[in-house]
Write a structure and sequence with these properties.
- The protein is mainly alpha-helical.
- It is built from 10 helices and 2 strands; from the N terminus they run H-H-H-E-H-H-H-H-E-H-H-H.
- The chain has a two-stranded antiparallel sheet.
- The radius of gyration is 19 Å and the shape is globular.
- It starts with 15 loop residues before the first helix and ends with a helix.
């Protein structure tokens, strides 16, 4: 499934609209199954880690199989050769970004750490967030962004996928409209830009995982309005204006998070432009048509 050698074309590749609809429905179902697996594992550290690993590996395998079958191509965005470096790079960036956010909130007296945490809780959070990061990135960057870019270019794909990414967080228990808007701006755009700059899913997966893990697993903060996950190393205590701390939604709704995440977003987009990876609708359509012609020729 992960071979970088293109499969032998066996059928006509469907339009991007058809692939977008079919793959979106499929990965929404994958996310439902993943939620069930996480619920069955509960907050037990070992079970949570195993469940997270199973969801991550299963989701990636499904994505690779579906892309090869529906698009008749190698799954270059999940090239195993770039997995370790991509995940590591993304994880370090995400960890640094959330730490910077907490540092800014603390500077203005909005955060302090209390006792009550544990290494077991931190491990449980890691397992939980591993499954979440992988399935959400496969859906929103691997399916939604990538196929929208094929249809309308990079800019349109960034905006639409970011809005959808923020909107899905409205279903969380403590969700707010401002929190969803903040996530769309700081995370939806940043993770999309990370994919554009690298053209692989490993970096946004690592970044997404580290941000969520640091939030709950290290600093004990609420993640996207959901305060039901296990407590990590410490129990975070937030006080002060919601605009600075994020209020009940968590630090993701803080203006500091938006400002901190704006920096890598700009840097990723500048890198993408320098590498010639920003596509207009015309260039994307041309590339897709050329690939289709090449595939038809190979099939003949």
């Amino acid at each position: 499934m992960f071979s970088q050698t293109p499969p032998e074309p066996r059928r006509r590749v469907r339009s991007a609209w058809v692939r977008l609809a079919a793959m979106t429905v499929l990965f929404l179902l994958v996310m439902v199954v993943a939620a069930g697996v996480r619920a069955a594992a509960g907050h037990t550290p070992v079970l949570s880690l195993l469940a997270g690993a199973a969801v991550a590996v299963g989701g990636i395998a499904v994505y690779a199989a579906v892309v090869r079958a529906m698009e008749q191509r190698a799954v270059t965005e999940l090239d195993p050769a770039t997995a370790t470096s991509g995940l590591g790079q993304g994880f370090l960036i995400g960890l640094g970004l959330f730490t910077a956010t907490i540092a800014l909130i603390s500077t203005f007296g909005g955060y302090s750490a209390a006792g009550g945490g544990s290494f077991g809780g931190m491990a449980a959070v890691l397992g939980l967030m591993a499954g979440v990061a992988v399935t959400e990135e496969l859906l929103f960057r691997g399916v939604v962004f990538r196929l929208l870019e094929e249809l309308g270019g990079t800019t349109a794909a960034l905006v639409v996928s970011a809005v959808l990414f923020g909107s899905i967080h409205l279903v969380n228990p403590g969700a707010t409209v401002w929190g969803a808007v903040a996530i769309a701006v700081e995370a939806g755009l940043m993770l999309g830009a990370a994919y554009v700059a690298t053209r692989n899913l490993w970096v946004p997966i690592g970044l997404h995982l580290a941000w969520n893990f640091a939030s709950r697993g290290i600093y004990g903060a609420t993640v996207s309005g959901d305060d039901a996950t296990p407590t990590g190393l410490v129990q975070g205590v937030f006080s002060g204006p919601a605009a600075l701390t994020g209020g009940g939604f968590g630090p993701e709704a803080s203006v500091f998070a938006i400002l901190v995440c704006a920096v890598p977003t700009v840097l990723f987009l500048r890198a993408a432009k320098r590498r010639g990876r920003l596509h207009t609708r015309r260039t994307t359509a041309t590339t897709t048509s050329a690939a289709a012609v090449s595939g038809d020729a190979a099939g003949r």
